[in-house]
Write a structure and sequence with these properties.
By secondary structure, the chain is an alpha/beta fold. Helices cover 37% and strands 29% of the residues. It is built from eleven helices and twelve strands. The chain has helices spanning 32-41, 52-55, 62-71, 85-93, 103-107, 109-119, 146-155, 177-186, 200-209, 218-221, 227-230, and strands spanning 2-10, 13-18, 21-29, 47-51, 76-79, 98-101, 123-130, 133-136, 141-145, 161-165, 191-194, 213-216. The chain has an eight-stranded parallel beta barrel, surrounded by seven helices.
Length: 233
Amino acid sequence: MIVIPAIDLRGGCAVRLLKGDPANETAYDADPIALAVRFQTEGARRLHVVDLDAALGEGANNEILREICLAVAIPVQVGGGLRALEDLGRVLGYGAERAILGTAAALDPGFVSRAVEEHAEHVVVAVDVRFGHLMVRGWQEEGPALEEILPALAEAGAPRFLVTSIARDGTLEGPDLTLYRRVLQLTDRPVIASGGVRTAEDVWALRDIGCEAVVTGKALYEKTLKLAQVTRG
């Protein structure tokens, strides 16, 4: 089970949003590059970096993304505003090991096919879920139902899914195990869970139902979880 620390970028800082709400933001670190290095030092095997400004159409943090990829030796997966093949090529060119597709993928499985044809296993498809539906455009608009879109994305060649429970994101209330069991019934692709993790027990619960990895941010920032607890298995 791989635990992936999250670094969400907004205005050049590392922040966390509560349930994806841009109006409910907590800033944690003004130096996200140093934060990335610290996570690596603490034992992280991969980093998850999202450009929230790009996702919300409010700008970009391209130079910081590049510097994070250069500053660490561990793989980095990058998301936020990747809506065209050129966007994927750009972040992979920075040195990211994976590019995360969000809205563009959810609304157009054909785009997933083209992205996978060009970048293969370097593609991760984000599935951000609220009340059984995908949420798109920075989690501001409701998209297709989970049962409708997940098989279509798998058929399009999605190598793996990053599934976020929006209702649990940033809450420290524990992961939505019911959602992940449902997802794992709908696809045989590897699933990365995100949202709600508070403790090491939450990590092991996700492992036990079959998730490949888990992304967590607030639990690490608030110190309810330490990487040393979950880097052994």
